[in-house]
């Protein structure tokens, strides 16, 4: 034990001493290179975890919500434009993306400890999970929806009369946001009995 302790103390002295053999320029260049490598690794990991393949790599997502998405217009449609998990659940702006990734650490915790590892557990927690997501979208004015859908470019004349009226009344005025009316657009709704404002 004393040998390990003396080795650690020696290592600490080396790390805490000013550099005697390296120039300030070498330290600066070395620090810059290390920073680039760290940033490249960090960004690569961030983007790797921001793919649909990563999202459905756990069976909870693959067997539940992903199967529901496959039957919606967001998955297959006449235009061939498809929304993936990160398109709707991860903000595109870098700072918001980092905040969302930190929130997602709770989801990883749940996957590790089996919070929703069976269909029955998933259905039990479905309303709670949906409320979290609806609240997040409400608070950011449905930003992820607006990354693809903009009321500025909507052609109200080709929408149904009801949709055109709602979009002009609520979206354009800012009175409501997308998620207020479009819950369950890409996934099945949970049991909404007792949810305030739901008919």
Topology:
Elements: H1 2-16, H2 24-48, H3 52-55, H4 59-69, H5 85-89, H6 94-112, H7 119-139, H8 143-146, H9 161-171, H10 178-181
Describe, in plain words, how this protein is organized in 3D.
The structure is a single chain. The protein is 60% helix and 0% strand. It has helices spanning 2-16, 24-48, 52-55, 59-69, 85-89, 94-112, 119-139, 143-146, 161-171, 178-181. The relative contact order is 0.08.
Descriptors for this entry?
199 residues; mainly alpha; Multiheme cytochrome fold; 10 helices; 60% helix; 0% strand
Summarize the helix and strand pattern as letters: HHHHHHHHHH
Structural domains: how many: 1
**Average pLDDT reading:** 87
Basic shape: elongated
Q: Any guess at the CATH architecture?
A: Orthogonal Bundle
Number of strands: 0
Assign a percent range to the helix content: 55-70%
Q: Stretches where pLDDT falls below 50 for ≥5 residues? A: none
Question: How would you describe the oligomerization state of the chains in this entry?
Answer: single chain
Q: Supply the helix-strand structural class.
A: mainly alpha
Radius of gyration based on Cα positions: 24 Å
Largest sheet: none
Tell me the number of helical segments per DSSP (H or I, 4 or more residues long): 10
CATH class: Mainly Alpha
- CATH topology-level fold name: Multiheme cytochrome fold
Q: How much beta, percentage-wise?
A: under 5%
Distance between the termini: 69 Å
Give a nutshell description of this structure.
With 199 residues, the chain is mainly alpha-helical. It is built from ten helices and no strands. The chain has helices at 2-16, 24-48, 52-55, 59-69, 85-89, 94-112, 119-139, 143-146, 161-171, 178-181.
